Each structure stands twice: as structure tokens, then as C-alpha cells.
């Protein structure tokens, strides 16, 4: 599978010196540790244990802006996402069984610790339960949290998210994750 990963100049130098890229905990986004730890655990469960104990997912793009624009746009990323400094685009071929694809838009639900409903009706049902739970907070908090987290695995089900509410696969941004080093 061909993927594109946007990396810092420092990572590029590491790749040239050592012949591989490695993602470690200190490279991961510190604003959402629960989400990145969850994704690391999913990667280990679905692909296999990481290459080293401190490994975090190595992020890339399988499909940047739909099926006709698979390659990521380095200019956009440098302008909108940071961090500061110079970046490079690394293109690589990985075995399909070493890559975990996920829906970029749906991933933001995990980042924001939300419920990932497949459609508006399902989401509205969950939010109604939340409102009821506010009256009985102690009983419902654990139940709702568990129910919410069970929906997060849907980020990997590109077929289920291929609908009017989430958009069609041929127009999606699809992330590609690998287990810590390539």
C-alpha cells in the first residue's frame, strides 16, 4: 500500500541516518493523550505489537482529499497544522497487513471524546440518554462512557461510514497508521 507521511526535518534526517522512521511517545500530540493511547492500543490489537515499548502510531495518508487526490498536500499542512519548522513528504510502500486505515473526520470524534454515531438518529438517541443520565449521574456515567467508547472502533469501518451523514469513501480523507516504525 502506498502512503504519504508528513514529517519534520529532524525525522527526515533520522530516516537518512538510520534507514527508518520511528514514532515515540514524545512525538505524539500531548493535547489528547487518551485518543492517541487508544489508537496505539487499537493498532497493537489489529496489526500486532509495536516495534518498541515506547512506540506510538506513525501517521500518514492513504487518501488525502478523495480518491482522485491521494497524495497529501505539504503546503496545506505546513500552513494549517504546524508545528513550526521545515517538513518533508515521505512516500513509502508498506504491506497492507501492516497498515491500519481510518476515517480522518471520524477520528475527530475520538479526539473530542465523543459518541461516533453512524447517523443523526443514532447520535440524537445517545444525546437523549446523556440528558436523562444527568439526572442520575452516578448510575449513567460509566454506562454512557462505555457505550461511547465502543463506537470509536467505527473509525476503521470505512464501509459503515460511507453514507449521507459521513460522506462517501471516494471523497474522504483516509489516514494510514503503522506500528511505530517504517
Average pLDDT rating? 87
Q: Low-confidence stretches at least 5 residues in length (pLDDT < 50)?
A: none
For the terminal residues, how far apart are their CA atoms? Answer: 13 Å
The beta-strand count equals: 5
**Count of separate structural domains:** 2
Q: Write the H/E string, N to C.
A: EHHEHEEHHHE
Query: What is Rg?
Result: 18 Å
Plain-language structure description:
- By secondary structure, the chain is of the alpha+beta class.
- It folds into two domains: 2-104 and 158-178, no CATH class; 106-153, no CATH class.
- Helix content is 38%, strand content 16%.
- It contains six helices and five strands.
- The strands form two sheets. It has a three-stranded antiparallel sheet with strand order 2-5-4. A two-stranded antiparallel sheet has the order 1-3.
- The protein is globular and about 60 Å long.
- The mean pLDDT is 87.
